[in-house]
Specification:
The protein has 149 residues and is an alpha+beta fold. The chain has helices spanning 5-9, 21-38, 42-62, 116-124; strands spanning 10-18, 71-79, 82-89, 127-133, 136-144. 36% of the residues lie in helices and 28% in strands.
Length: 149
């Protein structure tokens, strides 16, 4: 099914998954197909998927206690040349916008573990915002790009 130009100008992708690596991989594949069909340039799609992977993986690894189940929400809105991605989780509170910056200048063996993924998110996106809303972490990022069509 072909999309008309109006669909490409404003399109929305939404999923809610169980907090786990396999559901995350599946939703990343779906997001990639959605972006491709909507005319998002491949480098931007790769960036959006990396951001989704980083934010969701952090929630999966650190957001829940042993044996706790959780959910992760993914919402990508495309409006012309702007992608707005929101990732939500019901895990422990974590604001990536105030996480300490990792030491990227010391020798690798002297560096503390962690923080590089959040730095990657901050550098790849045009904006990164965080809110804690009703017991949920809400991270909204955006990226401006030139559509393929």
């Amino acid at each position: 099914m072909e999309q008309n130009e109006a669909d490409v100008q404003c399109a929305k992708f939404e999923r809610t998954i169980e907090a786990g690596i396999e559901p995350l991989i599946e939703v990343m594949e779906q997001l990639e197909a959605f972006c491709s069909a909507a005319g998002v340039p491949e480098p931007v799609t790769v960036q959006l998927n990396l951001v989704l992977e980083e934010l969701a993986t952090n929630a999966i690894k650190y957001g829940y206690g042993a044996g706790e189940q959780g959910q992760i929400g993914v919402c990508l809105t495309l409006n012309g040349g702007r992608a707005s991605l929101t990732v939500t989780d019901d895990g422990n509170e974590f604001d990536p916008t105030v996480a300490p910056s990792p030491d990227i200048h010391s020798k690798l063996e002297e560096r503390a573990i962690g923080g590089l993924g959040i730095l990657l998110v901050m550098r790849m996106m045009d904006s990164v915002c965080y809110q804690r809303r009703d017991g949920t972490n809400v991270v909204a990022v955006s990226k401006t790009f030139a559509p393929l069509r």
